[in-house]
């Protein structure tokens, strides 16, 4: 029990530190959201004067003269209530609405792609590691090369070949714009159709890392005494591979997979940009380009909570699976 309490307290402190950094870092960046809105207004030929600036400050809550510490306590209170302010880049939409509208796209796309790449990579790595020295080892250089290819380059190649030349898939977007978002079969089918190429990009780019890691662990585990004993007993090779070798070799991959699930929330910014996918990564880039502090803080907070939560779950599961970690 002491182990679990210690882990819980550690992650509470980590969450507080992340939330605190989330408050201070945007305020150290040059420019303000009001400056961004004034620049947009000037580009559109609007009237730029002190009265206009004052109006924007009142709308965004940037007119406060409170000390920084008081602003910090107000920020903590608003965060607990889920109030993140108004987005400048999507003005006048609240940050919570912007995140809730874009987050499901990223979670579904990147989440499913991450799960598929993990299962495919671990399964191939298990077989390749168990049958090392055979022709299956030729899979390793190919997948390693694919893992080394930059995301944006692979995304551009896939979109050029399968969307541009062959015309098998749409070039950009998350769904057919003539459809109304909802749970209708037409919309779901369109969303799946538009998500195939972005998902394929993520799977191809990440499956090599899972395969190589699992393969190396299988090679190491295959020489352990309990595996050799199981083989000496005359057990079937498949049973020894699954129940003895793979069961222990997969533990580091499970930890890495949990961390990857935490980063699913942040999405794949480059992939979403190439395919103009309406995910959280595109919103984060948009927020940085427009000095949208409120939206940046909201997205960073969601990412932080997701990563810390995934790590906490893994630590607790490790404590249950392997009692040695509790000592």
The gist of it:
Helix content is 73%, strand content 0%. With 327 residues, the chain is mainly alpha-helical.
Describe the structure.
With 327 residues, the protein is mostly helical. Helices cover 73% and strands 0% of the residues. It has 14 helices and no strands. The chain has helices at 2-28, 33-43, 50-60, 68-80, 95-130, 139-148, 151-165, 185-221, 225-232, 237-249, 251-264, 269-274, 280-289, 293-321. α5 crosses α8, α7 (151-165) packs across α8 and α8 (185-221) crosses α10. It is globular, with a radius of gyration of 24 Å. The termini are close together. 31% of the residues are buried. The mean pLDDT is 76.
The level of helicity is over 70%
Poorly predicted spans: none
Distance between the termini: 11 Å
- Assembly state here? single chain
The beta-strand count equals 0
Structural category is mainly alpha
Q: State mean pLDDT (0 to 100 scale).
A: 76
Largest sheet: none
What's the gyration radius in Å? 24 Å
Shape type: globular
* N to C succession of SSEs: HHHHHHHHHHHHHH
Tally of helical segments = 14
Q: Give the percentage of residues in beta strands.
A: under 5%
Sequence-ordered SSE layout with sheet pairings:
Blueprint: H1 2-28, H2 33-43, H3 50-60, H4 68-80, H5 95-130, H6 139-148, H7 151-165, H8 185-221, H9 225-232, H10 237-249, H11 251-264, H12 269-274, H13 280-289, H14 293-321
């Amino acid at each position: 029990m002491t182990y679990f309490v210690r882990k819980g307290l550690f992650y509470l402190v980590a969450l507080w530190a992340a939330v605190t950094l989330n408050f201070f870092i945007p305020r150290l960046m040059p420019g303000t959201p009001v400056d961004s809105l004034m620049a947009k207004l000037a580009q559109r030929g609007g009237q730029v004067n002190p009265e206009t600036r004052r109006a924007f400050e009142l709308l965004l809550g940037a007119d406060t003269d409170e000390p920084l510490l008081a602003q910090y306590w107000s920020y903590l209170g608003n965060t607990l209530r889920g109030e993140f302010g108004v987005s400048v880049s999507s003005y006048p939409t609240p940050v919570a609405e912007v995140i809730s509208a874009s987050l499901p796209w990223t979670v579904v796309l990147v989440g499913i792609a991450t799960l598929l790449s993990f299962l495919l990579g671990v399964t191939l790595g298990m077989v390749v590691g168990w049958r090392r020295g055979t022709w299956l080892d030729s899979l390793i250089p190919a997948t390693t090369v694919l893992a080394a290819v930059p995301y944006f380059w692979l995304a551009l190649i896939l979109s050029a070949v399968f969307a541009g030349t062959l015309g098998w898939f749409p070039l950009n977007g998350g769904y057919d714009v003539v459809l109304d978002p909802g749970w209708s079969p037409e919309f779901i089918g369109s969303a799946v159709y538009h998500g195939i190429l972005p998902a394929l990009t993520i799977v191809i780019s990440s499956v090599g890392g899972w395969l190589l890691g699992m393969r190396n662990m299988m090679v190491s585990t295959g020489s352990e005494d309990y595996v050799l004993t199981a083989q000496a007993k005359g057990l079937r090779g498949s049973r020894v591979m699954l129940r003895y070798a793979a069961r222990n070799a997969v533990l580091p991959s499970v930890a890495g997979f949990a961390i990857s699930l935490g980063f699913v929330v942040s999405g794949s910014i480059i992939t979403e940009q190439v395919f103009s996918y309406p995910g959280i990564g595109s919103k984060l880039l948009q927020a940085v380009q427009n000095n949208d502090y409120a939206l940046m803080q909201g997205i960073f907070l969601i990412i932080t909570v997701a990563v810390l939560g995934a790590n906490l779950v893994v630590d607790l599961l490790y404590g249950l699976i392997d009692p040695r970690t509790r000592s």
